[in-house]
Design goal:
The strands form eleven sheets. The protein has a 22-stranded antiparallel barrel. Strands 3-6-7-4-5 form a five-stranded mixed β-sheet. The protein has a four-stranded mixed β-sheet with strand order 34-35-39-38, covered by helices on one side. The two termini are about 40 Å apart. The longest helix is centred in the N-terminal third of the chain and has 20 residues, at about 10-30. The protein is globular. By secondary structure, the chain is mainly beta. It is found in: Cell outer membrane.
Length: about 1000
């Protein structure tokens, strides 16, 4: 079964509505958000089954020893004083919740929170060859992107797994995670750069004693994405409980879901793919919509085994045997058989017909989920100097290997073949002669190539932390301190296999008959190893021909990133006032970030850093400046920066009264100096008021936050391309200067970038276990974020136009269209602080738990729900001639109007059962579209007309359970997407999977079973 029953019958559409209503009712009925997990129930202790615990809001867990001399604190503040309540909303996910969700990667469990929108993972980026982010699991809060969410491990930074600076959660130790704090507001004053959207902080169990293991397997209902997870951890204490040692190791294998091939056949028998596409009629003023949303779009410029696309023979296609036949155009298209190669009845803008022969379409050939192998080793040694002070060291060595297929073959259109080419069938040669032509244009999906492009990223992380933490008396009061040094190193290697060298392919397809042998026509290519190939039909090229056009040593990139961070912080209560103790936290930090990346000479270009070698020999057919591969042209680069900063945070209680309740003011400030951009200041001001109304607390905080430019933006590896017909808009150009010219476009970093500046405000109300309903907690929070100076990239023409026509002088130094003689004109394509982002909305969270003893049943029921509404998400490019775009409710993006996560669980001493609902609301493709069918206004670039702008939401139902076989052995199961709900199309082009893989489940029903052992 592929289409869900919801989508087939009106009756079941009503059923879906009932289910959604029930899910929302469970959220609304238990009201609006939760306090801390640790306060509502103790963490589940094996061998009891994992229980569904409520997700908290802002209240910190009850103070208890996390390590010697330290209290557990919520990540929203650096103050460690027991009883302190931070004003910043924070959700904590405990070990029991992680276990209940039974995901092979804890990343997936956290990413399901509604406030996390646009996170990357193994199902995203699979259509990419060159990004280097395939299989990279990183969080994005508020849809602001992974680069604006700070992820920490035990409140310490982690070296980036990509030059954007984001870490890979797959490289974190997962079995020893005690809880995960998610701060849903700006936290730069507390933690520094990148905490614009918030902070995700993984807290490990530093006092684990015993042995535990987890074995898990999984498979989809389609028989793919087979999974195997093996985890084990051991902890021991020595020397009278003064030396504490924890070691964990894990291996996770996920087969992934392979790509389809050509046409519309998905992997495993899935049938939801239908080449949905925006058809551009390219008519803007006839009263009909310019864009049409249609399924089964046909690319008519190529077929799987070749198609003649212009001239008298246009429409002649070839089958696998190389035999010609008449191509079936969609839309009842009729080829013009002219040099232009137009097809009447089809849509020239984009080159699509509807229906017809779809066997050459390649969009289906993208991996649905990357294959992944994850290896992780972690160890911690802590020694108690005394009862209140500890020195410690941790080591985390991990590796993640992934693989994805971005597309099959290597589609080529607009090729020119000579009629005399000996690979052209005799009947076509005769037809050429009759028509009086000597050549024709040709397009092919290269279906004759035996293997598809595959990308193999490998990330290795080496992370070492040493430090001391504890508490000491100072002038009669106790002060907590934490001092640490961290060195992290990430090595990323990317290999691409089965990919074309474009110039060699172009030489190999041009064949002649020389001395009775078919050889390459170009004598220079022939002298340097060229072996001809036949791209007409499906005959597999010879091994020698494949070795020539697809050498075994394909594109390669090696990246080394390092991070060195020193941190010192302390906190305490130096005095008490009428309302309670004044708490203070302060500290200093220093961090250095470095990266160095090299690429192969065919992609990067030949240089002292990337010279020719035996693996990549010199070849006059290739361009010494690089960019020779079909894709994956990696370039060399390096850069570094350092940061020095200090912070101060104060919590001032100013009200404590039986009549008025209690209130506190929380303020913090941080001064940060970047070696690249100078000094920047961040701050926050907030407070909480525990009102005299039982269980009711008000909270609010506003902050100034920053995101500093990352290594990629500052020191991007340069990429040079040639741009013809470039317009010179200089109104004062000399009489001899041309109006159009050919330029070199250099994509480079910009070391003059400044940090993005954000203003982040949240305000809300919390109801925490009132006496009249002790198992109930709820909260409602409004958030508002405005980011100025957002780092964005212009195209080369925009840069020049803005300088000359809009007098933005900061861009004028990025190009020179009239260089000295002998030097080519150029434009440096760089990122600038031009754009802005505004988003606001609200979070609703709730939990309710109650015992079943009154009805004669064992255990307790736990209900919980979280919802996020995005009211606005407005991006202003900051470029004259553009308009701000509203992305709230755009289901083709990351910010649907509503997202919901709800769970209902029944937990007993023997077993647990849980039901989980994941839902997001219906939306649109783009808020700028004007929907109409007749009488349409004139379609414009900013507000184009379209016949359909509706993109449905989705509802996913998950179930799970566990059973204690013995006191030490627990078995469990989990079924995700029980109803096998198919994704909705997100039509863009027909060259990729036409759905939003970051939002929709593209895998289908997934089964997992496992066993946990704890001793």
């Amino acid at each position: 079964m592929t289409d869900t029953i919801f989508e087939r019958r009106p009756l079941f559409r009503r059923t879906r509505g009932t289910l959604l209503t029930a899910s929302l009712a469970s959220l609304i009925a238990v009201a609006i958000a939760t306090p801390s997990l640790a306060q509502t129930a103790p963490a589940a202790q094996p061998p009891a089954p994992p229980t569904a615990q409520p997700l908290p809001s802002d209240t910190p867990p009850a103070p208890q020893a996390d390590a010697v001399g330290q209290d557990i604190v919520v990540t929203g503040s650096r103050i460690t004083t027991g009883g302190f309540t931070a004003p910043t909303p924070t959700q904590s996910i405990g070990a029991a919740d992680i276990a209940r969700n039974a995901e092979p990667n804890v990343f997936t469990t956290i990413a399901q929170l509604p406030s996390l929108q646009g996170s990357s993972g193994v199902t995203t980026g699979t259509n990419s060859t060159s990004s280097g982010q395939q299989g990279l699991s990183s969080f994005s809060l508020r849809g602001l992107g992974t680069i604006r969410t700070l992820t920490l491990l035990d409140s310490q930074r982690v070296v980036g797994a990509n030059v954007t600076g984001v870490p890979d959660i797959s490289l974190f130790p997962q079995l020893l995670i005690k809880r995960v704090d998610v701060v849903t507001g700006g936290a730069s004053a507390s933690y520094g750069s990148d905490a614009v959207g918030g902070v995700v902080n993984f807290i490990t169990d530093k006092r684990f004693v015993g042995f535990k293991a987890n074995v898990q397997g999984g498979i989809t209902t389609y028989g793919d994405n087979k999974q195997g997870l093996f985890q084990a951890a051991v902890g021991r204490s020595f020397f009278n409980d003064r030396l504490h040692v924890q070691v964990s190791g894990e291996y996770d294998h996920e087969d992934g879901v392979p790509a389809g091939g050509f046409g519309e056949e998905l992997a495993g028998g899935r049938t939801w793919y239908r080449t949905s596409t925006f058809i551009n009629r390219n008519v803007t003023n006839d009263g009909s919509p310019q864009y049409l949303v249609r399924d089964h779009a046909q690319a008519y410029q190529y077929t799987k085994y070749g198609l003649i696309t212009n001239g008298p023979l246009q429409g002649t296609a070839f089958n696998a045997a190389g035999q010609p036949f008449q191509f079936q155009y969609g839309s009842n298209g009729v080829p013009s058989k002219t040099a232009a190669g137009t097809v009447s009845g089809c849509y020239t803008q984009g080159g699509f017909c509807l229906g017809g022969d779809l066997s050459g379409n390649v969009g289906i050939g993208t991996t649905l989920q990357s294959r992944l192998d994850r290896y992780n080793g972690y160890g911690r040694v802590g020694f108690d100097v005394d009862a209140n002070n500890e020195i410690y060291a941790t080591v985390n060595i991990a590796q993640v290997d992934t693989m994805n297929q971005p597309n099959p073959g290597a589609t080529k259109s607009g090729l020119t073949l000579q009629c005399a080419n000996p690979f052209v069938p005799a009947s076509i040669q005769a037809a050429c002669a009759s028509a009086g032509i000597t050549q024709f244009q040709f397009g092919t999906s290269n279906g004759q190539l035996p293997n598809n492009i595959s990308v193999y990223p490998t990330r290795k992380q080496y992370r070492f932390v040493g430090g001391a933490a504890g508490k000491v008396p100072v002038f009669g009061t106790t002060w907590n301190y934490d001092i640490s040094y961290e060195h992290g190193e990430n090595i990323t290697d990317i290999h691409v296999k089965n990919i074309l060298l474009t110039n060699r392919y172009a030489a190999a397809i041009q064949a002649i008959n020389l001395g009775g042998q078919i050889v390459c026509a170009d004598p220079v290519a022939r002298a340097n190893g060229c072996v001809p190939i036949n791209i007409i039909g499906g005959a597999t090229p010879s091994a020698a021909a494949l070795a020539y056009i697809e050498p075994a040593n394909g594109p390669f990139q090696h990246t080394r990133q390092t991070q060195d961070a020193f941190n010192f912080s302390f906190s305490g209560s130096p005095l008490s006032l009428w309302a309670g103790p004044v708490s203070v936290a302060a500290g200093a930090e220093y961090r250095n970030e470095f990266y160095h990346v090299t690429g192969d000479p065919y992609g990067n270009g030949v240089s002292a850093e990337t010279p020719y070698s035996s693996a990549y020999p010199a070849d006059p057919v290739l361009n010494t400046a690089g960019n020779n591969w079909y894709a994956g042209n990696y370039h060399a680069g390096r850069g570094s920066y350092h940061v020095a900063e200090g912070f101060l945070e104060v919590n001032l209680p100013f009200l404590k009264s039986d009549a008025l309740g209690s209130a506190n003011l929380n303020v913090a400030g941080r001064v940060t100096n970047y070696s690249t951009s100078g000094t920047v200041y961040t701050w926050k001001v907030g407070g909480t008021w525990d009102t005299p109304i039982d269980g009711v607390r008000l909270r609010a905080v506003t902050s100034r936050d920053v995101r500093a430019p990352n290594l990629s933006e500052l020191f991007a590896a340069p990429i040079t391309t040639t741009v013809p017909n470039f317009s010179n808009p200089n109104p004062n150009r000399a009489p001899g200067d041309p109006a159009t010219l050919t330029i070199l476009q250099n994509a480079i970093g910009n070391t003059a970038l400044k940090p993005e500046i954000a203003r982040n405000t949240t305000a809300g109300i919390v109801l925490s276990r009132p006496h009249w309903l002790p198992g109930f907690s709820a909260s409602f929070d409004y958030y508002r974020i405005k980011i100025n100076g957002v780092i964005s990239t212009l195209n080369s023409q925009q840069e020049v136009n803005l300088c000359y026509l809009n007098n933005i002088t900061s861009l004028c130094g990025a190009f020179n269209l009239t260089p000295p003689a002998g030097t080519a004109p150029y434009v440096n394509l760089q990122a600038f602080n031009l754009a802005s982002i505004f988003t606001d909305g609200f979070d609703i969270e709730a939990s309710y738990q109650f015992g079943l003893g009154k009805v004669g049943l064992p255990g307790r029921v736990v209900l919980r729900g979280l919802a996020t509404n995005v009211k606005n998400y407005i991006t202003d490019p900051g470029v004259p001639g553009t308009i701000p775009t509203q992305s709230a409710g755009v289901n083709a993006g990351n910010t649907p109007s509503w997202k919901l996560l709800a769970t209902e669980a029944w937990n007993t001493d023997t077993f647990s059962l849980s039901v989980q609902q994941r839902w997001f609301s219906d939306g649109v493709y783009n808020n700028e579209y004007v929907v109409c069918s007749t009488g349409c206004p004139v379609s414009t670039t900013q507000h184009p007309t379209i016949d359909n702008n509706s993109m449905p939401g989705a509802f996913y139902l998950d179930i799970g359970g566990s059973y204690n076989i013995t006191k030490k052995l627990n078995v469990y199961f989990k079924i995700d997407n029980l109803l096998d709900h198919d994704p909705a199309p997100s039509p863009q082009t027909n060259t990729g999977i036409d759905t939003n893989q970051a939002l929709y489940d593209t895998l289908g029903r997934l089964f997992r079973i496992g066993a946990r052992y704890n001793f």
